[in-house]
Amino acid sequence: MDDLIRRLPKAELHLHLEGTFEPESMFEMAARNGVMAPYGTVEEVRAAYEFADLRSFLDIYYAACSALLTERDFHDLTAAYLRRAAADGVRHVEPFFDPQTHTARGVPFSAVVGGVVSALEDGERDLGITWKLIMCFLRDLPAESAAATLAQAMPYRDVIAGVGLDSGEVGNPPSKFAVVFRDARAAGFLAVAHAGEEGPPSYIRDSLEMLGVRRIDHGVRCLEDARLVSRLVSERVPLTVCPLSNVRLRVFDTMADHPLGRMLEAGLAVTVNSDDPAYFGGYMVDNYRAVTEALGLTRGDLYRLAANAIEGSWATRERKDALVCELDGLYAE
Questions:
Q1: pLDDT, position 52
Q2: Is the pLDDT of residue 58 over 80?
Q3: What is the dihedral angle through the alpha carbons of 142, 147, 148, 152, rounded to the nearest 10 degrees?
Q4: Of 18, 71, 197, 198, which residue is the catalytic one?
């Protein structure tokens, strides 16, 4: 099973680039840029990675981002993730980035996008990883800030495929961003949104209806609403679940309590992803391994998870068919 997990051709659909910022890289970039790292040593950083909830995680997450200043930094951050992803069998990735986290500190929008995209292009050429880039709005900031960020993104529609919604759900319902998502879709951006992790199942429904999203990031609380589950199943809405993240943030007490197995049984289009792997203790193989061991997933379950991610991605039809062919070939072997 472990060999199969590693060799599965994977599409990662829920990955925050800033959440791949390993402590060693943080100190390297802080030194390079002449800024003080938010922690004294790598050991202090690791010790800080004990989160009481999403808010306490985000406080550390944003502090670490202070070391990211130049286009080179964003290139190196993205390139380091892609090397790890390739080793884990990732063939296609649709990463998130949070421009508001950086432009608020005076980092040019162009530096963020330029660094990320150059690394993604290098990764496609050198590692064979295809990609679609997603720009997220921070839901704990005003909708006006999201609208200003959308305006900054307009010249980059050739490289930014979609918009998303992340950060703390509590007190920040999808309705807050209905107008900016309408404008983003009108400009040609696809849409996704975090919903149903901290927030109630109604946030999932509102994201579909008010924001026009194509898939739901997390969505683990959908099982609390039978009618919502029926809709998600019938419409084949992909759910980008992040098991290690859910347990580290105490959404569920242990991996054995995670509902991913029940979600598969219900016929939901569940996928496995790593979210913020530098903080939550694992990249793609680690997440697949954790749920397989804790929930007793079968080889058939693993096939469905990998196939759901491929079909739920925004890759071209040709690319999807090639990845499914690779998946089928692995299982035939």
A1: 67
A2: no
A3: 140
A4: 197
